[in-house]
């Protein structure tokens, strides 16, 4: 087992007071680790994140990485917030600079009054910057001198150097090393050897800085109990688990950032959770040759009665356009997860945006409109993971889940997921007994006014079960037609089905509405902008502003959104895209109130901050 040599860090010397004449700042700051992509820093960063979480401190972790494979700068930001804020901040108070490339910019961006920890190696890997700022505390860290003698495997030495800054940070801000060890045991699934080797470096760094640094910054951590009962998870894993609990049994996908890890999570958990009593798998996962093939496969599986899905991002959605239109018109259920990244074109594949709203909603040529679910948290990624499967089968149509890179790939706190207790919603599926009783059916006939026809599944042996599945013009009996009257009748029925979906979604994915009497500010938003808006509202409310807020959860838009807009003179629509895409949909939905709706959008590849939102809405 690892040995912990106790040296009292200055951050734990007293529970309150000052460092260098400044009041202590406890559990309320951000740390950014600036390393090389592919250098193994994930273990170090997640160890810090989990240590905070295990100490009961609200925390969130955001990874900003380049679109190449290895070597370029990558930044991992960990925000500790005693108030529970989890949005990105404009600058980190503690910068850990291990990568010489871009180090000067990292130094310059460190928040005033912050701390700068930098690698001092005596060679080309040393961080060399113009350390001109008198408002920062400067801490050199000889990562090679500390870590290399303790790692016998030359291939792992680069990884070990990252653990040196974990140990240094532990001394500097007061992270309990027993908690660090527990975090490592979680990371390595209890394996002793990697835990011991990493803890040896943590302890060596801890002891070195205790003898060579003088703490002059005010930042420290103390134990809280604000994370009790919570979990830490990324949105892609949450979405995969939701889909599994929603009965998904066919997955076809093609690798693409930032959606690949969702398919990976399905591959990790389906073998554990989806087996027959005799141990055989009750699912199929296929990595297809491209996104077009993946779309065709899930549509075929949906037609055959499977609960099917794919996961992709913007460029993949483009390739799925024709198949999506076919599934919409032939009325075949399937689920498409779009973990949105920055476009146009290849754009910035490792940056975040909400730029696929209009594309997903209208994907398919002609008059096509798709149901879209809009999760704003990892909990909702799980919840909408299973709800999307129900909605797709109920309305016999493709359903998009529009997550994004920030929500999908980053680490968030969440309440534990609630297992869906309701039975799977299979929709209007006729059995052999139904067909015998009805003496037949018309596949595309609206029997009860909701626009949804009845269907049968392959394997139904009743002679009345057969019908043609057509992407070309068809009448209510699925017969080929080019008659204008039958075409119009079919399109009108699809319109009624879409309105039925609007009413249904307003029940199961209702907008979150918080109207404040006498509010002078009103906000509408959706998706992963919600944490930053929550923080901005909280801070502005403390300053005396009254703010109403509506969070959209699904498309088509719920009619109650009109009431919210009608109740306010001026409504800010906050989103992360250049063209204010949700604003456009809202104005189409309520043209008589279009002038009340105003764009409040930014698309720079980074998650929004509370500071930007506050400044943007107050400047209007």
Short précis:
The protein is an alpha/beta fold. It is 37% helix and 18% strand.
Model description:
It is a single chain. The chain is an alpha/beta fold and 620 residues long. The chain has four domains: 10-228, Pyruvate-ferredoxin Oxidoreductase, domain 3; 233-414, Thiamin diphosphate (ThDP)-binding fold, Pyr/PP domains (Rossmann fold, 3-Layer(aba) Sandwich), CATH 3.40.50; 432-505, no CATH class; 512-618, Rossmann fold (3-Layer(aba) Sandwich). Helices cover 37% and strands 18% of the residues. The strands form six sheets. The chain has a seven-stranded mixed β-sheet with strand order 13-12-14-15-17-16-22, sandwiched between helices. A six-stranded mixed β-sheet has the order 5-6-4-7-8-9, with helices on both faces. Helix 5 (177-187) runs antiparallel to helix 6 (192-212). The radius of gyration is 27 Å and the shape is globular.
Present the secondary structure layout:
Blueprint: E1 18-19, E2 22-23, E3 25-26, E4 28-36, H1 41-54, E5 59-64, E6 73-81, E7 94-97, H2 103-109, E8 115-119, E9 137-141, H3 143-147, H4 157-173, H5 177-187, H6 192-212, E10 219-220, E11 231-234, H7 235-245, E12 250-253, H8 260-273, E13 284-287, H9 291-303, E14 308-312, H10 314-319, H11 321-330, E15 334-340, H12 357-362, E16 371-373, H13 378-395, E17 398-404, H14 405-409, E18 411-414, H15 432-438, H16 484-508, E19 512-514, E20 521-526, H17 530-542, E21 547-552, E22 554-555, H18 560-566, E23 571-575, H19 581-589, E24 597-601, H20 610-618
Parallel strand pairs: 3-10, 4-7, 7-8, 8-9, 12-13, 12-14, 14-15, 15-17, 16-17, 20-21, 20-23, 23-24
Antiparallel strand pairs: 1-2, 4-6, 5-6, 11-18, 16-22, 19-21
